[in-house]
Amino acid sequence: MARLHEFQGKAILARHGxxxxxxxxxxxxxxxxxxxxxxxGNGGEVVVKIQAWMTGRAGVGxxxxxxxxxxxxAHAARMxxxxxxxxxxxxxxxxxxxxxxxxxxLSLAIDDAARAxxxxxxxxxxxxxxxxxASTKRIPCDPTHGPDPVALAHATAGCGxxxxxxxxxxxxxxxxxxxxxxxEARSLEINPLVLTTDGAFVAADCRITIDDxxxxxxxxxxxxxxxxxxxxxxxxxxxxxxxxxxDHRGTFYFAQLATAAVKGSRGLVGFxxxxxxxxxxxxxxxxxxxxxxxxxxxxxxxxxxxxVYRASRIILAQPDLVGYFGSGSGVASQEQYWSxxxxxxxxxxxxxxxxxxxxxxxxxxxxxxxILARMGALLGAMVEGYRKTDTPSEVxxxxxxxxxxxxxxxxxxxxxxxxxxxxxxxxxxxxxxxGRVWIDTPRWGDxxxxxxxxxxxxxxxxxxVPAMALPAEEFAGKDSELLACDVECLLAGIDGxxxxxxxxxxxxxxxxxxxxxxxxxxxxxxx
Length: 527
Fold this sequence. Notes:
five-stranded parallel beta sheet; 4 domains; alpha+beta; Rossmann fold; Dna Ligase, domain 1; eight-stranded antiparallel beta sheet
């Protein structure tokens, strides 16, 4: 499920008729102070809250009150230096402090057993609502028509409200359903829904998750990645998601888990799995061996070699890795040598200098292991391939031994190397899917037979110059075969053929920080 920040959720509520506190999201302490100056006026007070996908923000210092812009600036600066898990807080929400008379808890979620929405309602909101289950009322909902009228009336009847306020409360509950249905939310929680001293109901907090499959139907929500993360998407996750969406041959899933090794760990590891169950077992094995996993990556479902290449490049855009560990299912039906080619090309382009242990169990595993062994010899790096008969724990133990042998070496992201002839006026260029083939034309007479053989005849000799053997549109889809040709030429010591593949957005991250996400758009809070 795709999550939204509190300020984003409140903006949705406001568009559907809810009152929300006046306020602004602020990605800097200065903007927080500016927002406070606007809101405080004469003798007012504001609340400053971190925008993070977590509960219990007050308990970690993520909620504070301020009476001046200077106090607000200080609180915001402290909060923006916080991390939730290992990821930074990107912005705070500065809002007017409400004069509260009563608090209520409202939550809508999908009841899987009933296959319909269910609203939970309780008197009293805030933290600790989980312990007040006995006083929580359940209001069944028809997926089309909303809350059951009888259950709704029963839930609000004992709240001790005036007739007007009870009617307004029921309208808010109906509005909760309408809002959730409009944006296809899997869950929507208002905790608390506040009754102010002047008799208005105001949504003082909001948490919304959107069904992943509905995200494409709601571009207005600005959700970048239709997946459930425990943190807002990082810059590198955005690059990875775009790469996956551009190529639907197989699966590519990438999520960052840690930006630094935990205390006592043997180091930060780039993890590359294949297949859910096998990947989980392999992650357990590498953690048991004492390492911290930097990312979870899965390339499965018979991915293209170019997709595996891009995944590997993205994994290696993370700094401070002590090694690259690849292991997944041992019974994969995909042809593993394609993955080996993708990995080998990425390792060569980045001149890998940390240990890489890759378990590629399944079809053509022997060929895959051979490709990795030959590339390791070319690089002089410790690159080893393993088969399905090698268990994840055995492979993890070997990885640990290689990391120990490498000593204090850690990975530093770098720009990929390119042959000198790439982009030169005399080179021949053929367009392929999200990339291009470059051939050193002056050397064509020396390399023609090798390139023709390694490309399976996709590139041929035509009167002493390289040519495509297929129409351009068909040739463009042979990117994996041409990647294999690239690697085989490298391994054979043939310089003059190169496949250049685009990964939009990655170049800017390879030599800088890959963790800071772009600041979210500001959202005003007045209704």
